[in-house]
Design goal:
Helices cover 20% and strands 26% of the residues. It has 274 residues and is of the alpha/beta class. It has one domain (4-273): 4-Layer Sandwich (Purple Acid Phosphatase, chain A, domain 2), CATH 3.60.21. Strand 12 (236-240) and strand 13 (243-247) form a beta hairpin. The chain is globular and about 75 Å long.
């Protein structure tokens, strides 16, 4: 006769196996999301401008995040947005570099910043820096800005170096092009929003948080994020004096190759007048 302890062990083992299977599946179950972003200072001619925001690929380690990246790239290229940006943590190991360069080649002209994993400022014991200094055809922004023309209007993109950010020496507002009619800041870390002077940037794009990656649902639209239980910025849109910000849930995984109630996401932001 099977003992109560044996039955409990079997049930717990089955539940653990199901949880691991779900976490592995969800890590590749990418959400492809169009999202309206209202901006107060947006020129009417730039209304409807579409920006693809991708983040946190973490290529180079076994994970279903690789599938999420592949699906996201297919979706972005099929929609032909006017601007593509990637906000850091491109690889978790140098061996992910060939895959990354293939992805960037497919995306074409894009703007990229590095994340803490790319420069080995990470608590993840499995992560190793790759040492990027050129990601052509993408434009890698390392505490620098570039002003481009979209629909006949000047749009500036400024990128933050994660090393300077961690050291407290990055001053992206000092790079502002006052002649630009739309100014976008790319920073891997969302907390940069708290340090920006009002009006310096119209839109901030960040990543890093993975929407918690491992979360416990607590009811409608609420969940406990084990990695970041008290953070103010987890995923989605935020409005502060420093500007509007979108935090990407990212596409890859770190520490463990699982996601629980924190699906990976590729986002197409459509700018609209506030």
């Amino acid at each position: 006769m099977i003992s109560t302890r044996s039955r409990a062990g079997t049930l717990l083992g089955g539940a653990a196996g199901a949880a691991v299977g779900w976490g592995w599946f969800e890590a590749g179950w990418v959400r492809l999301r169009p999202l309206d972003v209202p901006l107060a200072r947006l020129p009417s001619e730039l209304a409807g401008l579409r920006i693809a925001h991708l983040s946190d690929f973490h290529l180079g380690l076994p994970s279903r995040g690789t599938h999420a990246v592949e699906r996201a790239v297919e979706w972005v290229t099929s929609r032909s947005p006017e601007l593509v940006v990637i906000t850091g943590d491109l690889v978790s190991r140098p061996r992910g570099e060939p895959s990354l360069r293939e992805v960037i080649e497919r995306l074409g002209r894009s703007f990229v910043v590095l994340g803490n994993h790319d420069v080995e400022h990470s608590r993840d014991p499995f992560s190793r820096a790759a040492g990027f200094d050129d990601l052509a055809p993408a434009r890698l922004l390392v505490d620098e800005g570039e002003t481009i023309e979209l629909r006949g209007h000047r749009v500036q993109l400024v990128g933050v170096d994660p090393r300077a950010y961690r050291q407290g020496t990055s001053r992206p507002w000092e790079l502002v092009d006052e002649s630009a009619e739309l100014r976008i800041l790319l920073c891997h870390f969302p907390y940069v929003l708290d340090f920006l002077p009002a009006g310096a940037f119209d839109l901030v794009l960040a990543g890093h948080m993975h929407d918690g990656q491992i979360s416990l649902p607590l009811g409608r639209e609420r969940k406990y994020r084990f990695a970041h239980p008290r953070t103010r910025y987890t995923a989605g849109l935020y409005e502060r004096p420093g500007g509007a910000m979108h935090v990407s849930p990212g596409l890859g995984t770190t520490f463990v190759p699982f996601r629980f109630f924190a699906r990976p996401e590729a986002t197409e932001l459509m700018l609209k007048p506030a």
